[in-house]
Design goal:
- With 197 residues, this protein is mainly β.
- The chain has 1 helix and 13 strands; from the N terminus they run βββββαββββββββ.
- The protein starts with a strand and ends with a strand.
């Protein structure tokens, strides 16, 4: 049941749903016929960060030591291996500009069938190049598995996800080499997630 409380040029409507709604509303649109139209709106909550995983995903924290060439204290390499993935997820950012290296040193040799990478760049247009290599001799020699470029042009293109199928037996090390800007400008390498199966 609605009730009108009188005021000189304004009424305040009360209802079980909306309390003290001023009429005419202070932000209304004239309908051209002497009346007002209230804008209908909804606030859409931010989409939660995805948690994507492979069937048989290797728990990196349990089976490997992670070596990294640099990291920002508020964007550590730990973010790459947490369960928060997708656009807006926490990420690693190198503390130093230029090329960076990430190495997984496995406690025991691993079989690898998939390597998944996510990269996000929110502010700078650039082409980041990543290559993945593995070693089966304790890190003495490496064989390249794949090399790929990720081109960013924020805000239209700011996130990329790639899953590479590989066939690796007995990997003792996995190395990711990152060139933050193939165009030769000084930039900082980033990585949102790295997952293995």
């Amino acid at each position: 049941m609605e009730e009108v409380l009188g005021h000189q040029n304004q009424a305040i409507w009360q209802s079980p749903v909306h309390r003290h709604v001023r009429w005419p509303p202070t932000r209304s649109i004239s309908n051209g016929h002497g009346g007002y139209i209230m804008l209908r709106k909804q606030v859409i909550p931010t989409r939660p960060v995805e948690s994507a995983s492979f069937a048989g995903e290797i728990p990196v924290a349990e089976v490997a030591t992670v070596q990294v060439s640099s990291e920002q204290s508020d964007h550590p390499i730990d973010n790459v291996f947490d369960s928060s993935r997708g656009p807006g997820g926490p990420r690693w950012i190198a503390n130093e500009p230029g090329e960076q290296t990430l190495v997984l040193v496995f406690d025991s040799p691993q079989t690898l069938r998939k390597v998944g990478l996510e990269v996000e760049e929110l502010s700078v247009s650039r082409t980041q190049e990543l290559s993945a290599s593995f070693s089966s001799d304790g890190g003495r020699t490496y064989r390249e598995l794949v090399r790929q470029e990720f081109t960013f042009s924020p805000p239209s293109t700011s996130f990329e996800r790639e899953v590479w199928s590989v066939a690796v037996e007995g990997a003792t090390h996995l190395r990711i080499d990152i060139k933050p800007d193939k165009g030769g400008r000084v930039g900082q390498a980033t990585l949102t997630s790295l997952s293995l199966a």
